[in-house]
Specification:
By secondary structure, the chain is an alpha/beta fold. It folds into 2 domains: 39 residues; 221 residues, Rossmann fold, CATH 3.40.50. The chain has 11 helices and 7 strands. The chain has a 7-stranded parallel beta sheet with strand order 3-2-1-4-5-6-7, sandwiched between helices. Helix 4 packs parallel to helix 5. The structure holds NADP nicotinamide-adenine-dinucleotide phosphate. The site of NADP nicotinamide-adenine-dinucleotide phosphate (NAP) has 30 residues, from helix 2, helix 5 and helix 7.
Length: 307
């Protein structure tokens, strides 16, 4: 298993002497290349022909829109019976109806990932309607209000951690026993590059996604003896309600820098379709992807490898 962890904290500012700082710079470069090698996924083929998820039951949190909805549609097309789970009933019902209309199997499941009872009830509903869950996509998430730490309300901090980390923990805790006893399972945690790249104003979001990544690695270790693979995905900047909401924050609330960044994603055509991360997520749920366990995969890395 590969941890997918980056280079250790080697700094170029250790010494003012040019000879030593050159060596440090070289070491830094070498460490970067090595870390890229470790996190790369050579020879990955994103498509597995046919219906690779036939006979599987998948539960997708945040399945009502955005990346979650695209993932639910794709998993269903590729053979899984899917539980489309989130808090907004009309969104999950609409996605499930659309899947059924296409001749595949789906049910809407009301779920608030921050609520332990709601998580248990959702898994029970999925079990009763489709069978025990063998594929879990922990996709539900929120960025919170992007403010500096000094202006962040404790309630907002907790809301972000509850949705992005505790929710994934609660869902994984529900899913693992069946996966372990059935000796097969897949969990994909939808994370963010914000876990590794600090951005002023994004402490709660970045720290929560970093915590999610560590949950991914630990679950991967726990699942490995039982053929349960657990991976993380950095989906890139995706054209969803989350980005729409981020663009709507006024500059006098979140500061000009973040405001420009969010506008720029759209103005410079950097937003990708939700179907792109969905393809990677679906691939990670196949048996063919078994060697990927504990990996945190950036979509951009795969694009580079596909060239
Ligand atoms: N879009 C991007 O650029 C981007 C970049 C990096 C990472 N991500 C990650 O991708 C994931 C999906 O985001 P998205 O961009 O598709 O955003 P989105 O369109 O806003 O979708 C978020 C989904 O999460 C659900 N959700 C939020 N809180 C929930 C809760 N407490 N319980 C159950 N469901 C909840 C929402 O449904 P309800 O509100 O109906 O519950 C919705 O279905 C998130 O984890 C996000 O952090 C997105």
């Amino acid at each position: 298993m590969c941890s997918g962890k980056g280079a250790p904290g080697i700094s170029t500012t250790l010494s003012g002497k040019s000879g030593i700082s050159d060596k440090v710079a070289l070491l830094t470069l070498a460490a970067r290349i090595l870390s890229q090698r470790r996190t790369r996924v050579p020879g990955i083929v994103l498509r597995v022909e046919g219906r690779p998820h036939a006979g599987r039951v998948a539960l997708i949190t945040g399945g009502g829109r955005g990346i979650g909805a695209a993932t639910a549609r794709l998993l269903a097309r590729e053979g899984a019976a899917v539980a489309v789970a989130a808090r907004t009933e009309e969104e999950i019902s609409s996605v499930a109806r659309e899947i059924e209309a296409g001749g595949n199997t789906a049910i809407p499941v009301l779920l608030d990932v921050t609520d332990e009872d709601s998580v248990s009830a959702a898994f029970e509903k999925a079990r009763a309607g489709l069978g025990p869950v063998d594929i879990l996509i922990n996709n539900a998430g929120t960025p919170g209000v992007p403010l500096p730490v000094a202006r962040t309300e404790l309630s907002d901090w907790r809301r972000v951690f509850d949705a992005n980390v505790t929710g994934a923990f609660l869902c994984a805790r529900e899913a693992m026993p069946h996966m372990v006893s059935g000796d097969w399972g897949r969990i994909v945690n939808v994370s963010s590059a914000a876990a590794r790249h600090p951005m002023a104003g994004m402490a709660a979001y970045g720290a929560s996604k970093a915590a999610l990544d560590q949950l991914t690695r630990v679950l991967a270790l726990e699942g490995e003896p039982h053929n349960v693979a657990v991976t993380g995905v950095y989906p890139g900047v995706v054209d969803t309600r989350m980005q729409e909401k981020s663009r709507a924050f006024p500059p006098d609330l979140i500061g000009k820098q973040l405001y420009r960044m969010f506008q720029g994603y759209s103005d410079f055509g950097m937003l990708r379709a939700p179907e792109e991360p969905a393809e990677l997520i679906s691939y990670l749920c196949t048996s063919e992807a078994a060697r990927l366990n504990g990996h945190i995969i950036r979509l951009e890395q795969l694009e580079a490898l596909k060239e």
